[in-house]
Design goal:
Helix content: 40-55%
Oligomer: single chain
Radius of gyration: 25 Å
Strand content: 15-25%
Number of helices: 11
Distance between the termini: 46 Å
Structural class: alpha/beta
Length: 301
Amino acid sequence: MRKLPPLTELRAFEAAARHLSFKLAAAELGVTPTAISHQLKLLERHCGQSLFRRRPRPLALTRAGQQLFPVVRDGFETFAEALSGIRSGGTSGRLRLTATNAFTARWLVPRLPDWRDAYPRLKLDIIGTDTVLDLDSGEADIAVRYARKAPPGGPSVELLRDEFYVVASPRLVGNLKRPLSPAELARFPLIEAEWPPADLDAPRWQHWQRVASRRHRSAPDFAALPSLSFREELHAIEATVAGQGVAICSTVLIGPELANGTLVPVSRIKLPGYGFYIVHRAGHPKTDLITAFINWAQAAG
């Protein structure tokens, strides 16, 4: 059997690396900071190099410590989840998932009761954020990325792909008998969500106008028309549902409203969308849990 350092040294390292504090690690493990320091020195002797930069403050991991920490952290989590699974007799553990705020609120949250029914012992920690978290550093186990093509850096599965429709509330446009022309659309307030400036093909009104101009003899200058612009896509959708204007929305995010008639398409012109990709790092110790989530999400989509 390979020679490994004692478990107490690894536990002390994991806690100190996670907190970046000997004092907090000691409090968590019920020992003194001196004991933590002693265990870490023994581990560093075993490794043959320093794992922490103790000066200047604050405490920081060396490159060797950064290399060791995710392995030890994931190892402890894998042990805990395997033992929990043995005790419970089924799939169990904890999975950290990150997704955009819009996808989390509009697609994931409504389906969580089905998730709990399917995997009652598998805990899901959901991090809704538009910031791209680093999976390699362990900020999350799995991510739902929104991109035109598969993101680099790890295995990925395309879960869904959307389109963008011009939609409005019937309270605003009434009971339409036919799609509206660009000139007719221009009579209504426009609603728009912000997109990264570098994405020239993002579903903005200017892009929609370029496509419309190829199908209609003339189209108004939508960029010059009054509009409501929202940083959060969720807010743009809510304003559209409330009848405050016409918007270009993702079919994935407004699926329920399209199904029940709360929002209706008002133009035949559609814009191509993006893919929702489930991404994780290669060789993740929670492969079984990640596979369970992917299988569930594909069935729920």
